[in-house]
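Hi team, as promised in this morning's meeting, here are the two structures we talked about. I've kept the exact order from the run log so nobody has to guess. The first one is mostly here for context; it's the second one we should focus on when we meet again. Sequence first, then the predicted structure tokens.
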Amino acid sequence: MKKSQVSLSCREIPALKSSNVPISSSIVEPEFYLLQTNRSSHAGTSTRLRGNVSNFASLSMEEKKEEREFYPTSNQLLKRPLALLALVPKDAALFAAGAIAGAAAKTVTAPLDRIKLLMQTHGVRVGQEGVRKGIGFIEAITLIGREEGIKGYWKGNLPQVIRIIPYSAVQLFAYETYKKLFSGKDGTLSVIGRLAAGACAGMTSTFVTYPLDVLRLRLAVEPGYKTMTRVAFNMLKEEGVASFYSGLGPSLIGIAPYIAVNFCVFDLVKKALPEEYQKRTETSLITGLISATVATVLCYPLDTVRRQMQMRGTPYKTVLDAFPGILERDGLVGLYRGFVPNALKTLPNSSIRLTTFDTVKRLIVASEKELQKIILENRNKEGQSSSEGTVR
């Protein structure tokens, strides 16, 4: 078998004078040994450095280069395709999985989302002196079908799909990053830490993609608009850049607790289950439904406030104006307008996203193990060939 090689490269540093102090193996060996055993325990020996050094020296391991020599061949990848996933950067794989899952979930649930938006914004659209109570679920379904046909149920879905790709990627990446940030010195993450990580991840992704969310709402509920480009142009011309961030405050306030509760409950519920159940797909689906239900019930009123503040001609300037205004017009029920279609849309949507994310993480781990098996097999084959050659 090949032993690990340690290369020694030297370069001049003008600020330092030459030194003829010998470096003994007792000084450098522990550090070398640590590198050696961490990367290639099969070598069984440590590399010693002896001699005089007069210039600054930097050490680099050649393990990765050596490992690439044993990477699977095309035939091996065809027979064991799972190893191919390990060759894709981990972040790229997670990004693609989150984007595809989010886009698919949004497209499937788009009709329910359109119905929810009409129910939430009906009072503002008909005018302040118009009908006070909102329209119902069945009435909204009939209204869309009668006025716009089948395509009307997917109106505004394209900007939503475009939005969900970066939104999912930023949110999942940010959540993993914030979890590391809020974890303790021993690497453990408390419930408060999970909530904080989820809240920060939700606000980060919302801020980055908020203009697309406003465009999607305008395209979905305001008559006369055909394309997202036309909506954006009219908003810039008539309302200015600030219109793309109308209702950002309540959006951040609303999404922070929602993502915090959703992600935290999902993680804790799965963690509390027996290990044999944690890796099952159906467990992730059910856990996702539970976490999304709890988060939706608690945070839905803030979503209603956000939607009404995004509308053109809204009488509400702040969250403090919107809450009493909606309560005065529609009562407590007004804060939960569109809750049923939203729940029908959000629950499977969240469940699909989290389940897909969990599944991809397990596939990545399995692919890395598969790749290491192939590398080990190739290394052993070369070792056997070398041994046979020596004997001959």
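And here is the second protein, the one for discussion:
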Amino acid sequence: MHHLFTHNDLDGVGCGVVARCAFGEKIEVRYNSVQSINPQVSRYMDAYREKPKKGGFLFVTDLSVSEEVEARIDRFLQNGGKARLLDHHKTSLHLNRHPWATVQVAYDDGRQTSATSLFYDYLVQHRMLQPNEALAEFVELVRQYDTWEWEKHDNVTAKRLNDLFFLLSLDEFEDRMVERVKRKEGFAFTDFEEKLLELEESKIDRYVRRKKRELVQTFVSDRCVGIVHAESYHSELSHELGRAFPHLDYIAILNVGGKKLSLRTVHDHVDVSDIAAGYGGGGHAKAAGCPLSDAAFRAYAVEPFALDPPRPDADRNEYNVKGSEYGVLYENRAGEQLFLFQAEGRWHLDANGETAEPAFDAFEEAERYVKRRYAAWLVRDDAFIQYLMRHAGKR
């Protein structure tokens, strides 16, 4: 009997689906949180020491283990056990010092890996799994969602697979996927699932619109961050917030009840796994998380608590539009008026009647500066026209 200990998110459960396809009833699968993996593996080691099991593999996927458990796995192999850990998180790369661990962040062609894709490749390579079209497509959907490549390729099916994962119980999702990928033809949702997903997407849209109005903006260390409290739809929420507020370096989503902090970014120059690691967490460059420790709670909840959300940009303007040759007007909660205008081929900022430095070569750079420094928003046409009338004689 084989044993698989894996994460309890889509990528981790994807490993469970692959394992079921490879071994059927000859594998026991346990889904774990980041906090529970070390006790789970330790209990397995204790049971093995009391009653050694011959022939079975211990697989750990999509999760890292502590130094203490590392040492226990070394002894486990010395005593005749078989183990393989497969992970794709940068924070687990140190485990590659062990012959029983494979931690790979990216393939040679530049694609990001997932635990499901690494586990699938390993089982196929060692002839423990017979691949087919449907299973390969399922693995790729999981990989694209977990690495956020689905956004770049506009692969909505990958995102919808994760939606379905949260709509069903874990066991039901696993059973449905195992049955589906064994059919060998291409992967597809059922008619019932399509209807279910349509209803869920409407619910997600309403939730995201509400949370967008609750986001506050501040600096944590040297990064400009948007902070929102939410218990659901973290991926969808962070995706939409990142697109709506591109001037922010990353989005921080607090789940106070679950004592978790999720970090997401749409930018290549920001690695949120490094930020999460500073609070005892980890993850990927664009998607990471950590426990909501005292330090994280102070930085992301206590200190920003008194801040008010910035208003959304006016979206029905005819005159005060971004990049306009007549200038563009913003304001913020403090009542400051920020006017961007062109002069001598560059964009300049008039802040409350005073021309401020620096000047910018492109409008996008100037707007990013105004939104980051002043937490400002694009005002409506009527306020813009009044501003121009008041300042017409001064410029």
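Starting points for discussion:
The mean pLDDT is 92.
The longest helix spans residues 191-212.
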